[in-house]
Structure formats: C-alpha cells, structure tokens
Amino acid sequence: MIINETKREDGIEIMFKPKNDETFKRLHEVRNFFERDKVYTDVLFYTFEDNQVQIIVRDDSYAVLLAALFRWQLVKKLEWVD
To answer: Domain of life of the organism in this record (predicted)?
Structure first.
C-alpha cells in the first residue's frame, strides 16, 4: 500500500492506494469503526474511482487513527521523515 501524508490547516490528509482487495476491505473496516463513533467530524473518508482513499483527520484524533491502522494491520511501523 502506498501512503502519502500532508499537513493541512484543519488537520492531516492521508492518501492511501491499497495494493489489493483485502487491503481495501480492511481500510473500509477502519472507516466503519470511525463512522460508528459519536464524533462525526474526527476522521473523514473519501473513496475515489481507482480505489484510492483520502482520509482527513483532525489533529486531536490522529493517534486514534494510527492505532486503528495498526489494529487492522494496515501499517506495521511508522517513520517520520523531515
């Protein structure tokens, strides 16, 4: 999976390009997890025709999103590059 992250004024934008249907399915499970919580604007998901997924996450929900990505095994490690 290819992941690109960009800082925005209102949070962080993450673009995912899933490499297969299983990865896309797990990403959808993460989306369902956030859609069931009580805060509707913490993490927003947009899916494009090519199955690329844009996630916009508020700064205060970023750690929760990362934990969910680990939980559904979409990431195995994180590294920040300046």
So the answer is: Bacteria
From first CA to last CA, the distance across the chain in angstroms is 21
Model pLDDT for residues 33-63, shown as the tens digit of each residue: 999 988 878 899 999 998 899 999 999 999 9
- C-alpha 40/C-alpha 4 separation (Å) is 23
> Model pTM?
0.85
DSSP letter for each residue of 18-82:
-SSHHHHHHHHHHHHHHHTSS-TTSEEEEE-TTS-EEEEE-GGGHHHHHHHHHHTTS-S------
C-alpha 71: how far from its chain's center? Answer: 12
- Determine whether 22 is exposed, middle or buried from the number of CB atoms within 10 Å of its CB (0-12, 13-18, 19+): exposed
